[in-house]
TrEMBL record:
Substrate binds at residues 129-131, 166, 173-175, 227, 248, 254-257. The lineage of its organism: Bacteria, Bacillati, Bacillota, Clostridia, Eubacteriales. Pathway: Carbohydrate degradation; glycolysis; D-glyceraldehyde 3-phosphate and glycerone phosphate from D-glucose: step 3/4. One of its GO terms (molecular function) is metal ion binding. ADP binds at residues 25-29, 158, 215, 218-220. The gene is pfkA. It comes from Ligaoa zhengdingensis. This is ATP-dependent 6-phosphofructokinase. Pfam families: PFK.
Amino acid sequence: MENKQKTIAVLTSGGDAPGMNAAIRAVVRTALHRGMRVLGVRRGYNGLINGDMVELNYLSVSDIMHRGGTILYTARCAEFREDAGVEKAKETCIKMGIDGVVVIGGDGSYRGARDLSLKGIPCVGLPGTIDNDISSTEYTIGYDTAMNTVCDMVDRLRDTSQSHDRCSVVEVMGRKAGYIALNTGIACGASVILMPEVPYDLEKDVLDKIRNAHKTGKQHFIVMVAEGVGGVEELAKKIEAATGIETRACVLGHVQRGGAPSLTDRVAATKMGYHAVELLEQGIGNRVVGLQCNEVVDYDILEGLEMVKTIDTNLVRIAEEVSL
Ligand SMILES: Nc1ncnc2c1ncn2[C@@H]1O[C@H](COP(=O)(O)OP(=O)(O)OP(=O)(O)O)[C@@H](O)[C@H]1O
Ligand SMILES: O=P(O)(O)OC[C@H]1O[C@](O)(CO)[C@@H](O)[C@@H]1O
Ligand SMILES: [Mg+2]
């Protein structure tokens, strides 16, 4: 008897990230190349629960590689956090003949993928988040683009800070992680970088540093603050009061999630998307795909979620020594 044609589904979930489209394209093209059908699920797990999906062909994913956002839309789906929601999604998968699902998203989306895998629908997670806060991979899709966007924005802030002899306190995204803040802080020449992983003393690590640099003739400052530290408005007031330097706070916000993906994001998304399909082709689910030393790897979802990722303490030290 002839083998039944495999059908896989692909969805994006959680916050969007530049490069998600490149990942969708890689999944679709790889699967079609191997003779599978592909369904694109709209708005994350919502689409899986409600059966909101469309068949994708080679042309459906043309001209999307260079676009930010996700053509499949994304969402945070409260219903999927409950067993009843996962059960409904499973029923939809069975009804639509879905043999496996590629879930592109963050750690929350991975938990959902695990729940559905445990119900017998093989799921493979791809790391799609600007935060780079997924332990099982050194790199997440969207991280590089978001950091380049931050650099571009902060370079602009520097122009106006420099012209006014001001201090700019900038909040960047990252949820509870400081990866974006640390790397962009270095790249933008920040005088101070605050991230949740590294405790700081306001007087010693922020105010004294700015006061001392001010005495040597430095007139404008960038203070980079991770979202997980927050409080940029209050911090700006404290810096102004303690140093006499006019200070402004700026929360960069969602601009960090948009824009054309960088080359790094496009290639990473393509490599990982390809691997996800290779796994599903073999009927292997409950896995998360990642990059370690730029090589594609995969792990059991729970094992991946339980891995620990730490901030690069050497990079923190370098940032401290070179900043002024
Ligand atoms: N513990 C869980 N069990 C089942 N499903 C979950 C769980 N946590 C999250 N999900 C599902 O995954 C969706 C996305 O999760 P979340 O909002 O945490 O974003 P994420 O995937 O971590 O991405 P990001 O943090 O980059 O925005 C949730 O809306 C929900 O549908
Ligand atoms: O778009 P929302 O729901 O406001 O979520 C914002 C969060 O999503 C991210 O942009 C991506 O996880 C975080 O950096 C941020 O904390
Ligand atoms: Mg998350």
